[in-house]
Amino acid sequence: MKPELIIETRNLSYQFGNQLVLDRVSLNVREGSIYGFLGPNGAGKTTTIKVLLNLLQAEKGKVFLFGKDLNKNRIEILSGIGSLIEQPAIYSHLSGRENLLNRALLLQVHSVKVHEMLDLVNLTEHADKKAGQYSLGMKQRLGIALALLHDPKLLILDEPTNGLDPNGIIEIRQLIRKLVQERAKTVFISSHLLTEVEKMVTHIGIINRGKLLFQGTIEELHNVSKKNLEIQTNDLVRSRELLCKNGYQAEILSDLILIPYLSENQSAEINSLLVKHDHRVYSLTISKQNLENLFLSITQI
Amino acid sequence: MQGFLLSIQSEFYKTRKTLAFLSAILLPLILCILITAGFYTHADKIMFLSAKMQWFRFTGAFLGVMGSLILPILIIFQTFSVNNIEHRAEMWKSLFSLPIPKWSIYSAKYVYVVFLNALCLALFASFIIVSGYLLNVLNPELKFNQFDISGILFKLHLKLFLASLGILSIQFLFSLLWADFLKPMGIGFVLTVFGIITANLGWKYAFTIPYTHPMLALQSMMKQVLNNKNEQMEFDLMSQEIYVSFIVAAITFIIGYFVINKRSIR
């Protein structure tokens, strides 16, 4: 067990009846990271989170949090985790403040922390309003405040931006960044949309049909993306014909010709070929696959 | 143990403004006001009775409806209300991901419902006594102040409380299983009516049905009191239906823990 790993699962498998929901998932989440756990709906994200919170018992594999076996140290480990699973669990007949005071009572947290949390999630103004009257964004923020109340080292958030409008998504994103920068938390956040989390995460895990298909930093994800050579000429149709005749897999996409990138020499050869045949070459650039497309291509395997 | 005590406090905190808690206070209060008003306006009908018989009539007015219908219905309502708070907020998984033992959360909730029932019955006994003395103040010709019924009345309500533990545990389990009110209410109501019928018919095995226990407890008490040759209002606290009620409560409590352990997480 590497000490810097806050979450480590080893070949985690889980089955609902005959359906294999998690298939040998091995997660590695480092301290101080914001780990985006991505996958389409039904990929196994929430099940993984429930296993991490000991709400479900994994049939095969091991779960370590803070370097300790979850099954043997449940209470100790859970005291270091704050979580928000699916929709925020909030008592609608109590105010935001009362929801936090109730949780503070359960976790023996001083009531001063309640005011601090309300302030952190910008709910002080609405603290005494019944939580049932909150907007979805306010409920999510209250859910995060509840998760943070006992000052956990690790925050596990299951689709916290689900159903939020763009402003709500930005607010949650800013809050999570603030938590990592100012409070040194490790955040494990699940989402089915890469665009929602790619601007804030440091690491990414992509899961589909219970299998972890990719795990690494954003840069590493970029690196697995296929590179293309984008060419702009005065006559795209003729240029494409010429390139195809010479054995290149050229395609026209909008105002560009795309060719799988191989090497710098190959780019130079293509340029010479086009110029030799009186094609005017406006630009030759190397492009990477858009991250969202890459995510889709990974999850559609 | 600390987790259990904290969970109990939390139960009180989150239900203190709900009908689950208020019903335990309001129901005895409202019923007492209504019956007291009835006796006040028709005091002439019991004026000629002895002090003991006046109390007997007065408490009988409460216990008749309490034992058969009000107590089971109140239990159905309270158990549902306490668990529905968690169902409505989808709180079970959130509660079980807190660093508190699961059994503490579950048993605290159960004990809290038991407490609400005990509180309600204790208030019933207290309000009946207060109402009796109040009637005497309002109409000095009544004789409620000439006989001390408090000991008997509290013992009787304690017997009712013990007899209702089986129903309470079953309804607690139902309200864990189903989030909507109709199922636990519907099943509970049907079983209550079934219990009333079997208890009134004097079916030999009626004691095996938990919903008959409050009625059977009252019947056994009445039987003992009426058979007392020394005219003392004495009866046994423990009887067959109370023991069965304990057994049902214990078994259902254990089943409920496994149910909630599995159900809360999906």
Which key terms come to mind for this protein?
heterodimer, A: 301 residues, alpha/beta, Rossmann fold, Alpha-Beta Plaits, six-stranded mixed beta sheet, five-stranded antiparallel beta sheet, 36% helix, B: 266 residues, mainly alpha, 10 helices
Query: Separation of termini of chain B?
Result: 27 Å
- Unreliable segments of chain A (pLDDT under 50, ≥5 consecutive)? none
The total count of strands of chain A amounts to 15
Helix proportion of chain B: over 70%
Which descriptor suits the 3D outline of chain B? globular
What does this structure look like?
The complex is a heterodimer of chains A (301) and B (266). Chain A is an alpha/beta fold and 301 residues long. Chain A folds into two domains: 5-218, P-loop containing nucleotide triphosphate hydrolases (Rossmann fold); 225-299, Alpha-Beta Plaits. Helices cover 36% and strands 29% of the residues of chain A. Chain A contains eleven helices and 15 strands. Chain A has helices at residues 45-52, 74-78, 96-107, 112-120, 136-148, 166-183, 194-197, 218-224, 236-245, 264-276, 291-299, and strands at residues 5-16, 19-25, 28-30, 34-38, 60-65, 68-69, 81-84, 154-158, 186-191, 203-208, 211-217, 227-233, 251-253, 256-260, 281-288. Chain A starts with a strand and ends with a helix. The model of chain A has no long low-confidence stretch (mean pLDDT 86). Helix content of chain B is 76%, strand content 0%. Chain B contains ten helices and no strands. In chain B, helix 1 (2-15) crosses helix 5. The longest helix of chain B has 38 residues, at 51-88. Classes of the chains: A alpha/beta (301), B mainly alpha (266). Chains A and B meet through helix 2 and helix 3 of A and helix 1 and helix 4 of B.
